[in-house]
Specification:
heterodimer, A: 2 domains, five-stranded antiparallel β-sheet, 28% helix, B: Rossmann fold, 2 domains, five-stranded parallel β-sheet
């Protein structure tokens, strides 16, 4: 029910109704982008990655935050490997 | 797909699982009992089973499946109201596909459609509004359900209908709110939880602050989580890490989608169109104060509750059905007397078997959940 899927805004189709064409995994659909305008001119949204839910872009995906989370995940993996190596070191 | 594939990489799973196991061992040794962590959102429940996450976790972590599946908590009386509206001559009744098979006291919407009612599945409330534009001689009703994630979409659709003066469109509003529901759960005397995986997409609307009381009053950690397998494992690690360090905080694992303040434009649209109800009736959980919204009087001409004489009767759940106990985490789906026998996804008795996000449907579909192994299932999209 609360599922959302990332897509990229490729064109504005109806500025008055705040509708845009959004590419979701290669499929284009008209989506309402009123929630992600954030007081910008509507054309400024082209290129944005957004989370699409029931025909509406509900959030702008923050590339910096995505990179931060991935970095944390990688560091967590490296730390865990280090820890395992430490624990196993010298064992038969 | 960008922002999806990188959070599914199988090679990251092993280290995360080891890190979770190491911390869990420490906390379980201190507490002398297994950990109960609730994933509130039905989307998480589905992902946990779809990717085989429940099987991979240490045996001392028990995931409790929360009430965050709007279709699952829809009371029988509400389905009856939908059927009554849909069977009114001249009506086109529109709904998300999930709600079609929820059993009413006499029939589901799917059965009513088979008997001739004009019921159509739509992807978006905007598609329902387009039907109203195209059929000015018919009354088009949209069945609005879902938590705060879906509420802005129906609110904007009503505002659009108002702007265009479309008079043959109305909303049957059954939206529900997450915070009063979590409050009611936390006050329930038989609940025994150590922490929460918080709902990612509800939070992109409401933000992080509304959860603060969970840390302050109940001293429980909550981590708002994304929906990919690495997101869920990462969030579980963050919850267990808080427990290991004796912290109870509200943390955000899903920063790429969830801003601290939520979505201001969406909250504004919700506030303009909806107001809190005194109470809302939930399947299995009973009546919860302020847990639902209705349309404000200013939008009365779009309110199906006022346009139609809906019966609004309370109908008790079937006695054999134990959805309520499963929703509260008191029993596992398999412990229900009718699980997999008289209640199956094809012929559901209870709502938890209907939606793919319901705990019972997930147990049924993905079977073999009790044997544990470390393999992530990432073949299905």
């Amino acid at each position: 029910m609360c599922l959302g899927i990332p897509g990229q805004i490729v064109a504005i189709t109806d500025a008055q109704r705040k509708l845009a064409s959004v590419d979701v995994g290669g499929v284009k659909r008209e989506i309402n982008i009123a929630c992600v305008l954030a007081e910008r001119p509507i054309e400024a949204c082209i290129g944005d990655w957004v989370l699409v839910h029931v025909g509406f872009a509900m959030s702008r995906i923050n590339a910096e935050e995505a990179a931060k989370t991935l970095k944390l995940l990688i560091e967590l993996g490296e730390a865990q490997q280090e820890f395992m190596a430490m624990r196993q070191s010298g064992r038969a | 797909m960008k922002y999806v594939d990188e959070f599914r990489e199988p090679e990251r799973v092993g280290a995360l699982l080891e890190a979770i196991a190491a911390l869990t061992g420490k906390v379980v040794a201190e507490r002398g009992r297994p950990l109960h962590i609730m994933e509130v959102c039905g989307g998480h429940t589905h992902a946990i089973f779809k990717y085989g996450i429940a099987k991979m976790l240490p045996a001392e972590i028990e995931l409790v499946h929360g009430p965050g599946c709007p279709v699952c908590v829809l009371p029988i009386g509400q389905v009856d109201d939908c059927v009554a509206i849909a069977e009114t001559p001249g009506v086109i009744f529109t709904t998300f596909g999930d709600a079609m098979r929820v059993p009413g006291s006499k029939k589901s919407l799917l059965q009513a459609k088979a008997e001739g009612a004009d019921i159509r599945m739509v992807y978006s409330p905007l598609d329902a509004l387009a039907l109203a534009r195209a059929n000015p001689e018919r009354e088009v009703v949209f069945f609005g359900l879902g938590f705060e994630t879906t509420m802005p979409a129906t609110a904007f659709t009503i505002l659009q209908a108002e702007a265009e003066q479309i008079r043959n469109f109305s909303l049957f509003c059954n939206h529900i709110t997450i915070i009063p529901t979590m409050q009611a759960l936390l006050e329930s005397p038989d609940l025994n939880l150590d922490g929460f995986i918080g709902p990612g997409h509800v939070s992109m609307i409401i933000g992080m602050r509304p959860y603060q009381f969970i840390a302050e009053k109940y001293r429980l950690p909550l981590v708002v989580a994304g929906f990919e397998p690495l997101d869920i494992l990462h969030s579980l690690w963050m919850v267990v890490k808080q427990l290991a360090e004796g912290r109870a905080e509200i943390e955000n694992q899903y920063g790429r989608v969830v801003p601290v303040d939520g979505n201001v434009a969406a909250l504004d649209a919700i506030g303009r169109v909806f107001e809190l109800r005194e109470f809302f009736e939930w399947r299995g959980l009973g009546s919860i104060d302020h847990s639902g919204v209705r349309m404000r009087k200013a939008y009365a001409h779009f309110d199906a509750e006022r346009k139609f004489a809906v019966p609004s009767q309370r109908v008790a759940d079937p006695q054999s059905c134990q959805c309520g106990d499963v929703l509260k985490g008191l029993i596992k789906p398999r412990q229900c007397k009718v699980f997999g026998t008289t209640c199956t996804p094809e012929m559901p008795l209870g709502a938890l078997m209907v939606s793919s996000e319901g705990a019972c449907a997930a147990y049924y579909q993905y079977g073999d959940f009790e044997s544990r192994n470390g393999n992530l299932v990432v073949d299905a999209a």
